[in-house]
Amino acid sequence: MTGTTLRGPAGWRAWLLMLALAASPALADVPFLSGRVVDDAEILSPQVRERITALSKAHEDKTTDQVVVLTVPTMDGKSVEEYANEVFAAWKLGQKGKDNGVLVVVAPKDRKMRIEVGYGLEGTLTDAIASRIIRNEMTPKFKNNDYNGGIESGVTAIVSVLQGGSAPADSASTSSSGKGFSIDTSGIEEQLPPWPMRILLGCFIFGIIGLFTFMGIVTPGVGWLLYFFLIPFWAMFPIVILGVKGALILLVIYLVGFPIAKLILSRTPAYLKAKEDLKKKGTATIGGFTVGGSSGSWSSGGSSSSSSGGFSGGGGSSGGGGSSGSW
Q1: Is the pLDDT assigned to residue 160 strictly greater than 90?
Q2: What percent of the chain has pLDDT over 70?
Q3: Where do the H-state alpha helices sit in the chain?
Q4: Which of 85, 105, 192, 206 has the most neighbouring CB atoms within 10 Å?
């Protein structure tokens, strides 16, 4: 086609066709909904596909809930949460107005899975229960490459819970030997936001409590009050960024590091001068901040800063609750 140009209506149609063909790979990310079990990864036997299909159909006939299984070889770099949400939205699982759909996604090459739950079923199939099903019914079998058993057990447990049955027993619960108890934090760990969001939240959270921690360390007198005041903040807010174990380690560092830093700093000339100024003048300048001795307040540039405001965030929808896992 050397020297050929596309002009007129035929030319525009050709350009539109080329653009449509270029965009077609993005549309192929979500498979066609061919049934209650879409086994694109080809990891299920025909017998298991039939049993899961029959179980899902019987449950839908009884309750109108839709439970669908999708297996794909890989999600091509997407997170399992993002991919499951896209599929759920494209397939529009559940009845209109009821939002009573459940999607089970398994990607064997990525070693990721997710139970995506529609809004209408979140009260019954909670995030914690979905996490327990993944952890106790699916993950052990997946680790042994038993995809048939893992997916069938997971769907059976989901249907049982939706029909009023009890959730699977938690393997992390207290043993009958009386050796003590353990706290299951895996559900919290699985619900942590992705790392880009954690970094942004970390800048916000640690920027605020870090500033007050610094002021507590460098300020005579009222600094010890801030030390105790900030303990709940250091205990809770880092969980959404570092998880439970990470937050616990950070809390221990704060509890030990703050007094040590303050005791070391209390022997420096700048700290002693600020302490003396607070006694004689009632105010002292520390790092550009003016500290008021009687009220324990800070100001910078002549304007006082208030810490009366609280933490708040905007709410958003993710297309339904659920839980994710890996093996």
Answers
A1: yes
A2: 68
A3: 8-27, 46-63, 80-91, 127-133, 139-143, 147-162, 186-190, 195-218, 222-229, 231-236, 239-265, 269-280
A4: 105
